[in-house]
Amino acid sequence: MMSTPLETTLEGVGRAPHGADYELVAVSYLSVHNLSELLARLPADLPIVVVDNARNADGARELVESRPRGRYLDSGGGKGYTKAANLGLRSSTYEYVIFINPDSRPTVEVFDALVDQLRTAPKLGAIAALSVGADGRTEIGVGGWEPSVMRAAVHASGLHKRFPRHGLWAQPEPGESVELDWLSGGCMAVRRQTLLDLGGFDERYFVYNEDMTFGRSLRRAGYLQRLRTDLLVPHAAGSSCGGSTNMARLRGASMVNYVRRHNSLAAAMAIRVLLLVGTVLRIVQSAARRDAPRAAVFGLTVSSTSKS
Question: Between the CA of residue 81 and those of 27, 105, 177, 290, what are the distances in Å?
Answer without folding.
Answer: 7, 19, 29, 33
